[in-house]
Each structure stands twice: as C-alpha cells, then as structure tokens.
Design a protein that fits this description.
By secondary structure, the chain is of the alpha+beta class. The chain contains 2 helices and 8 strands, in the order H-E-E-E-E-E-E-E-E-H.
C-alpha cells in the first residue's frame, strides 16, 4: 500500500472468487470473438487463408459480404488435395453463406480468393463436441468454492465488540 500503510493479506477465498470470475469472463470473450476480415482485389495477395483443425462432424460457416461488386471462390483442401471449391458472385451489399461439414478429423486449410472487388469475410466454427465449453463449469466450480469458503470463514471469525 502506498505512503507506508499496510493492508491485510488477501484471503484464499477472495483469490478463488477472482480466478473463477476471470475464467468465466475469458470464456465469454473466447466464444464471442469472431473477427471479420476485409479482402480487396487490389491488394498484393487478394485472398484470405486459415488453417482449420476440425473433428469429424464439425461445421464451418463462411459468410462473405460484398462491399463492392465482387466474385471469387472458397477452396478447402486436406492432405490429399482440394476437396471443396465453391464460387460466388455478389453485387454491392449482397451476402453469400457457405457451410462446410468435415467428414474426417484433421487439418483443413481454407482459402477465400477474390478475383475482383472488395468483400468482408467471417469464418465461424461450430463444434460437434462441446469440449470448448468446459471452461464454464470449471469457472463456476472455482467461483462457488470461493464463495463457500468465504461464507465458512465469516461464520468462524471472532466477533469484535466495540465498547
């Protein structure tokens, strides 16, 4: 504490509460963060690529919104080569959506090409197993344990009487 003061040590229950709330907030940020990427045909490399690690049955949704008249393709490949090639042609303001279902577990490089114009791309992965949601029960368990520990500490603390 500044100016030579002193502060009591932080209680373990407070640390647990802080960590539990932090884990829950991190989970909300991780699951809510889907970024949009702008692609322009005038750029040096008019494409956007992303390596997707998928399990069997996972779905990937590609959303493309044209900011000017544009055309291009979505190419998804695996170790053996190209497995999907979806073309699109959009007018200004139109949207194109394509969903890819993975048939096997593995890495799938996905590339979105733009031949002419400008567009914004959003890629969203929907998992077949909810393993990425395990962060919520862990955060809730830590938070509840911290609250329970704090309640027990307050019940057993001595009562100071002022005279």
């Amino acid at each position: 504490m500044g100016a030579g003061g002193s502060a009591d040590a932080m209680k373990f229950s407070d640390v647990l509460i802080l960590v539990g709330v932090g884990v829950l907030c991190a989970g909300f940020i991780i699951h809510g963060w889907v970024e949009t990427t702008a692609i322009d045909s005038d750029e040096e490399t008019p494409m956007y690529g992303k390596a997707l690690t998928l399990l069997k049955g996972d779905k990937v949704q590609f959303d493309i919104e044209a900011t000017s008249d544009c055309s291009g393709s979505i190419v998804i490949s695996d170790d053996s080569g190209e497995i999907e090639n979806q073309t699109y042609q959009l007018m200004d303001g139109e949207k194109f959506s394509y969903t890819f279902d993975s048939k096997d577990t593995g890495s799938y490089p996905a590339t979105i090409y733009i031949d002419d114009g400008e567009a914004e791309v959003k890629i969203d992965v929907k998992r077949v197993f909810m393993l990425d949601f395990i962060i919520y029960p862990i955060g809730i368990a830590i938070l509840l344990f911290g609250l329970q520990k704090r309640r027990v500490e307050q019940e057993s603390s001595p009562i100071d009487a002022e005279i």
